[in-house]
Each structure stands twice: as structure tokens, then as C-alpha cells.
Amino acid sequence: MRLLNNLNFRTKLIVTFTLTILFIITSIMLMLHFVLRASYHEQEHQALRSYGQQISVNIDTRVNYFITYLSLLSMDRVLLEAMENEEYQHVEARLGTMTTEFMSLHSGRVRDIRLYLNGNLDSSDVMVNTKLIFDEFAPGKTAFRENYFLTGTYLNSRNEKIFSLFTKVYQLNPEREYFLEMRVYETELLGFFNEDTSGSNIYILTDDYLTSMSDRNLFGPLLYRSRENDSLSVSQNDVEMLADTITIPGGSSGFDVIVEPSPEYLDRGYRIMLFRLIPVIIFVLLSSLLFTFLISINFKNRLKTLQGKIAAVSNWELNTNLEIDGRDEFGLLAEELDDTRERILDLIVQNNDINELKRVAEMSALRAQINSHFLFNSLSSIKWLSRQDNKEVLSDAVEKLALFLRYSLVLDENQVPLHKELSQLEAYVYLQKLRYGDELHVHIDIDEELLSCKTVKLVLQPLVENSIIHGRREDGKLLNITIYTYSDGEYYNLIVEDDGIGMSQEMIDNIYSGIEITSQSGCGLKNVIERVKMCSDGLGDVIIESQYGVCTKTTIRQPL
Q1: How many whole angstroms separate alpha carbon 27 and alpha carbon 16?
Q2: For the whole prediction, is pTM greater than 0.85?
Q3: Which residue of 34, 158, 168, 427 pairs with 403 in a disulfide if CB–CB is 3.0 to 4.6 A?
Q4: CATH class of the domain comprising 367-559
Q5: Do residues 533 and 359 lie in contact, with contact meaning Cβ atoms separated by under 8 Å?
Q6: Residue 286: helix, strand or coil by DSSP?
């Protein structure tokens, strides 16, 4: 310290400033290593997690589609009658005829659809004894409750990687116990992530068994070994994974997605920033030695300016540019602050995008509740029509059901013009009138200028369905349902009113609060309330008014 005090001011300033800059550089490097590196890792983890969640959603959608098709086959009246009365070979031939079009449409995705009669099992081209599979449908097991069983991936006799979906066909004859099997190519799952460019290892598992993965070199030999051991698939324990993995729990189909990030991928942002920052630091260090005598003049003013910039960040004035002139330590600090400000703004945008993705997923889940309920009710109506032996009416009913499904299965829109919603409702009402006939009258009176207004998709059908199922009187008296609109400037009101038996105030309060909902009616109304508020950013509302034994009026209030 005494030696430093004996130096002149310029030399002292150069030495002091040089030591200070070196200290700042060291501090920045430590901060980059311990803080920003972890922050970049977290950002990449979030991106990979979102990617894995999208893979999970895509797989769930595809596998549930196959499961639904097997379920429809297991409920087909013609096939059930054949199983009851005909020989196994005839039933198998009939199944092949029924699935020809489906197999043609899904060539390259579905290997085949097979039929098994317990006690008459064909063991050819089967990876294990099918009895082990059928035992999974015993009462008390998961497959018995869900009525489907999903295997891991295995190699068939043609050395093809496939996995199987099993479902049991329930019928009256206990002597005949049939099972349906659909074999799906493993590449159907691989197609959802085979174009990944992050270098991460992606694993798809079901019940802790490996079903697909991005590392094909590892996947093939392991599968071959599992076939030799006569097991269903490769266990996760057979694959060594890093501790730094991302696990997305499986959805309704039961597939788990595990993403094992590549260390190079996690460090890419950190390395880029580091390589860009090193030349800047070197430049600032050399410039500081050259212009030290100039810095001493404006040191105080620039310090005051930097303090003002820091205060702006502290006050969350994030739209203000924080950079100041110069490349010395003040400029560097200001630049780092501005980079931090921009990253904060980017994180806010990313958080908004993630919230929007969550909102879309929640909307799709809420709409799916209505779709499944309506599908089963409509199939019940069509089953009733088929017994009347009226092919023309039955054909119209199937066409109306197809119209509704085409409308409801489009997942890229949560709001539609009111006239489209009314077209879908007319298809639904047509199916219901076929069943209830003169016991049901639906009158629609919509102002023409409101037909182009946006409304929440699939919002009228659950309300009308609620009136039909829970509003009809036991004496079979005509049920009148009226749908009409009116506007009051900034909002328009869409009303569904019936003269049915109504609801008590306690039931209405339970629907609003979401507690003690024990019927599909309550679920449907609660579903409508949530979707209206979600799609209108909380501006929309659903108002339920009812007088028990007299009528029920439901008003959907939405912005114009």
C-alpha cells in the first residue's frame, strides 16, 4: 500500500483500474459459470420439457384413436352376433372384411388386427404366451377396469418392431371368450420425435418397459435380446440413463416420455454467450489502459448515469434502453444490465407462451369431456334406430353424427362463428328427435346480425342435452326448448330455455362451486362455465336461473 501511495496519479489510476477490471472479469466469469450457466440449462430444460409434453400429447391422441377403434369393433352388433353363433374361422374372416378399409387407410402404421378365442389360441407370430396377456383382464386388474392392455415393443417373426393393443369382447355366451389385438408399428411412436435436432436421447416407456427410443443402435440389440428371453419388452433398468433427465408422466394411454438432454445441447447458449463476451472483455481491458486519463475526467458523471440506469431496472422500467456510451467498465456494466433486461422480457414472453399452451391444453381436455359423452349417447340412439329397420333414417342419423364429429374433433379452434355452432346443434337435435319424437320440440330464434359473432365451441349442445335428459317430465309431456339471443351493446346473450322440471337453488349453487357434482348434467354445465370464462379472459359469464317444477333458463353472456 505504501508503494502504491508513492506513485503518481496516472500510474496509480492505471494500476488500480487494471486490478479492478481484472476483478470484474473474474467476477463475471464466476457469475456466468455458477448462475447464468444454470439459468441457460433451466431454459433448455423447459424447452425440452415442452417438447416432451407435446410428444406425450401426440402419442396419447394416436393410441387413444386405436383404442377407440378396437372398442367400437368390440361393440359392433354384427360381429357380436357372429361371435355368439358362428365358428371361430368364420368370425375371423368376418373381422378381416370389416377392417379392410381401416387397414388400407393405415397401411404402414398398423401391422394387423387379430382375433383370439380363449381355448383356441393361435400361437404363431406371438412374442409370448397369449394366456399371460388374457390373465391381465382378470377382475381387479387394470386391464379389466380399462378394458384394454398395452404391451411394450417386441420383434415379430418378420423381425419388425411392433407393440400390441388388446381388448376383451364381452358377450352373453360364457363359453366363448374373445379378445381383439391390434399390432402397431413402433415407428408410429418414433415418428413423433425422429426429427429431433437437439441430440437428446428420447425414450418412450409404458409400465416401465421401453417401447421406443431415438438411439436406434441401442434399441435394436436390446430388443433382440429381449426376444430371446421371451419377455414383453425391454425394461428401463436395461438402459443406462444420466441423472439429468426429464420425465413426462404418461397420459390416458399410459406412455411415459423420458428426455435425456445432451450436455452439448444444454451448454450451447452458455458457450455462445461466453465466446461473444470474451472478445468484448479483452477489448474493454485494452481500451481502459489506453484511455484511463479520459475516464478520470468524466468518472463522476458516468457513475451518476449508471446509477440512474440501475434505478430504472430496480423500478421495473424494462422498456428503457440501459446502454450508455463507451466500452469501459461503466459501459460493460450497462451492457450486462441491458442483456439482463432483455432476458427478463424474453422470459416474460416465454412464460406467456407457456400459459397459452396450458390454456389450449385445458380447453382441449374440457371439450373432450363433452365429445365422449355425446358420442356414447349418439351411438345409443343409432343402436335404437338400427332395431327399427329404417335404413334411410339410420343413414341420416349416421350422417348427422359424422357432421358433429368432424366439427368437434378439430382442435385448432376454441371459438367459432355462431352459425357454425347452430349447424352442429341442428345435427344433435335431429338425432334426439329421432329418439323422442313428439315429446321434444326445439325452437331456434337467433338475430341474423349475431350469426357471425364468435362463441365458445361446443357450448350449446351440452345445455340442450341437459334439458332433454334432466328436464323431461316423467309423464312424457312435450318438452319445449327455445334458443334465442339479444345484445346490449358490448355483449350479446345466448339463451337456452326449457319448460322442464327445473333445478333447485342448491343444485345451481353446487354447479357454480364445482362441489358435489354427481351427474353428467352438473359436469356438463360446469364444463360450459369454465370454457366460457377461459375463452373470454374472464369477461364472459354463464347465468343459470331455474324454478323447480316450472322451467330452467341458462344465459351465456359473451363479448361482441
Answers
A1: 16
A2: no
A3: 427
A4: alpha beta
A5: no
A6: helix
